[in-house]
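Render this sequence as a predicted structure.
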Amino acid sequence: MSTMITAPRTATTRRAGLQLSAEWVNSTVVRIRASGDIDASNTSELLDFALRRGANCRSLILDLTEVTFFATAGFSALRTIELRSSRASVSWMLLDSPAVARVLSICDPERTLPRGV
């Protein structure tokens, strides 16, 4: 049996204030990156992008390290990702920025979301 090595698959989208990209690290792991601002006007876009791009993965990395503004609406999206991932038996990890960490310190003081280092 032969193994084919290919470059990671990627997808990108950009809207005012928010850029999203997805990279398949391997056949089961997808890394979704967001940069810019996440607020009530684009939270649904983040959620839709993450759920569509991560639909067939076993492990999801949500990289928000380049997010400069994070509204509480973004926290609701994270909770939805948590719920959907749990239902689909997908492990996931959140990498946060200082802006995201600030909101999570208020909305998730028990640190129930799976946050990376």
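Summary. Residues 7 and 25 are 9 Å apart (CA to CA). The chain has a mean pLDDT of 89.
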